[in-house]
Amino acid sequence: TNQNSDIQIFALAILLSSTFVYNTMNKIDQGAIDRLHKVTELTNLLRTRNSSDLNETEEPAYVSFFPDLVWTLRDFYLSLEINGHAITSDEYLENSLKLKQGSDERTQAFNLPRQCIQNFFPVKKCFVFDSPAHKNKLSQLQTLSIEELSPEFVQELSEFCSHIFTHSKTKTLPGGIQTLLSAKQEEICKKNVEASADRCSTLLESIFKPLEQEAAGGIYAKPGGHNLFLQKMEQLKAQYRQQPGKGTQAEEMLQKYLKAKEPLSNTVLQTDQALTAKEKERKAEQARAEAARAEAQRLEAIRIQEEQRRAEQERLHQEKLRQIEIDRANFLAQQQRIREQRIQACRSCWVPHDP
């Protein structure tokens, strides 16, 4: 039932704790005591399971398993005094758990939960807390700074925390159970490590196998192939880390796998470097050939330009010579005409006249 489940959960919380903080409001009343009285049902549960080891006249062995009780009272509004005399919060707790005299049914019902609390929690401590802030700020409590809290509350909280940090001990068990628990823990941890290692090994093989097949197939045997290999490796590492249920050995197994695959990565790198060097040499040779072709083209263009220049000079020279010949012929012709005109004029002068 749910009630039995609650009891078992409560038993587990109690037995696993070295300090049990019981947090209630305002004051210690019968309701708070009755809720803590669940330990009586816990007693019956443990008695049933340990009946062979118990003697009704002896203190139950499991009492030594119980933690220290720290009862905290929030928004405490009572005055810490009895009959006009000031008392401590611890004395207030002890007085609240004090048994009544008498054997009637009502007195027994009153004493039973208090007696159980005293039996199961021989070490008890009580802290009372004022309201943490003024009532008009209580709705904003989660956003208030420490300076906005009540100084009394801050001081009480500091004392409570100091006690918890100072007096709370590591949970220990008597009778060599702690040696036994450590051995059991080691055994379980070892099994977990082995199971995690097996799971991670299978997962790594499944995820990284395609990469190994690609490398074997020469996918990365090209200039720049190592960078592509590393990029794919990072993608697969992310895929591996996203897989659930790997256990405690997840990262260690990944690192071991990557260490084992370093020779493959180095092979891809060396192939990349060799092919990259060849590619660089090929490109350098291509560049040199292109430079030589460009230089030859440049020189051929210069040669053609020079031939054209000389041909043009020769054409101009021949044209000039032809013009000189023409001019000379024209000049000689003109001179010839002038001589002929002079001769004709002279002949006219020599013609004899009639007497």
TrEMBL record:
InterPro entries: G_GB1_RHD3_dom, Guanylate-bd/ATL_C, Guanylate-bd_C_sf, Guanylate-bd_N, P-loop_NTPase. Residues 1-169 form the GB1/RHD3-type G domain. Transmembrane segments: none annotated. PANTHER family: GUANYLATE BINDING PROTEIN. It comes from Neotoma lepida. It holds the Pfam family GBP_C. Belongs to the TRAFAC class dynamin-like GTPase superfamily. GB1/RHD3 GTPase family. This is GB1/RHD3-type G domain-containing protein. Keywords: Coiled coil, GTP-binding, Hydrolase, Nucleotide-binding. One of its GO terms (molecular function) is GTP binding. Residues 275-322 form a coiled coil. GO terms for biological process: cellular response to type II interferon.
